Amino acid sequence: MTIAQTISKYSKLLKSSSPLLDTELLLAFTLNKPKEYLYTYPEKKLTTSQLLKFKKLYRRRLKGEPIAYILGHKEFFGLDFKVNKDILIPRPETEQLVEETLRFTKSNKILSVVEVGVGSGAVIISLAKKLPRAEFIATDISTKALSVAKYNAKKHKVKIHFLLGNLLKPLTEITDFQFLISNFILVANLPYLETKQLNNPQLNYEPKTALIGGPDGLKYYREFFHQIQKYKLQPQAIFLEIGYNQGAKITKLAKLALPRYKITAKKDLCGFDRIIIITK
Ligand SMILES: C[S@@+](CC[C@H](N)C(=O)[O-])C[C@H]1O[C@@H](n2cnc3c(N)ncnc32)[C@H](O)[C@@H]1O
């Protein structure tokens, strides 16, 4: 079977939202070539072992496994990140979190950036690439997630101090914690789905600890604001990605924890509150 015939046959059977692209990506991955190769050599015949390898990957996609896990990487903010089942696949909508944070840094001098719940590292590494003078600290509750983030930081040649632990708590254990208390910005995309939203089969493959924020989705943001008060943190600003229906509730939590701060909700392309910005 030729490359063109394989694409034509298998893309028709795939019930994903992008069957043609998925088939192309799987075939290019099988052949260890860039996607353009498929259209440069459409008449090239696949060997038996190439076809077997392709079918094996294709069956995983057919069952619903996200393409990023099959390929082992995902693009985010123009950078390529290693991904695996230990971390949430970085979402395109999370790029807005990076954009809003960068917008703030244009008119404010930033010394340190702390990301809570770093996952693959996509957010903080994208920030680190654009802010070479700042210092970066990232926390996560998952050792496995931290090891993926460390790999990605090394791959993109950025220095990030990784800490294992519950939300902001690991910060209190670092030696220059007193210095950090007000000289930093906080960024987080904590698990915010409601338990009942897990019914979506597309999410079956991703770690639940990266997705679910308890019955109302707010468990982690509640604890996050509680810790801000408990540790008397006064960040220059906070940037949070939230669920589509959580704008008012998170604003309320933020007002209680940081009464002197200004709180703004930014909408996503669908018109839902997506990013909460909290500034002094
Ligand atoms: C929604 S994912 C976000 C990952 C990444 N920042 C991104 O935007 O693609 C949430 C991350 O928070 C981590 N997490 C969950 N509970 C945590 C906790 N109590 N303390 C620190 N990190 C936590 C998960 O392991 C996961 O990596």
Largest sheet: 7 strands, mixed
Poorly predicted sequence stretches spanning 5 or more consecutive residues: none
What ligands does this structure carry?
A: S-adenosylmethionine
| Topology pattern, helix = H, strand = E | HHHHHEEHEHEHEHEHEHEE
CATH architecture of the largest domain: 3-Layer(aba) Sandwich
Strand order of the largest sheet: 5-4-3-6-7-9-8
Tell me the CATH topology of the largest domain.
Answer: Rossmann fold
Task: Please state the average pLDDT score.
Answer: 95
Q: What level of helicity do the residues show?
A: 40-55%
Q: What is the CATH class name of the largest domain?
A: Alpha Beta
General shape: elongated
The termini sit apart by 63 Å
Number of strands: 9
Question: What count of helical segments does DSSP give?
Answer: 11
Short note summarizing the structure:
With 280 residues, this protein is of the alpha/beta class. It contains 11 helices and 9 strands. Helix 2 packs antiparallel against helix 4.
Overview of the molecule:
The chain is an alpha/beta fold and 280 residues long. The chain has eleven helices and nine strands. The chain has helices at 3-13, 19-31, 35-40, 48-62, 67-71, 95-107, 122-130, 143-155, 177-180, 219-230, 247-257; strands spanning 73-76, 79-82, 112-116, 135-140, 161-164, 184-188, 237-241, 262-267, 273-279. The protein has a seven-stranded mixed beta sheet, with helices on both faces. Helix 10 (219-230) runs parallel beside helix 11 (247-257). The mean pLDDT is 95.
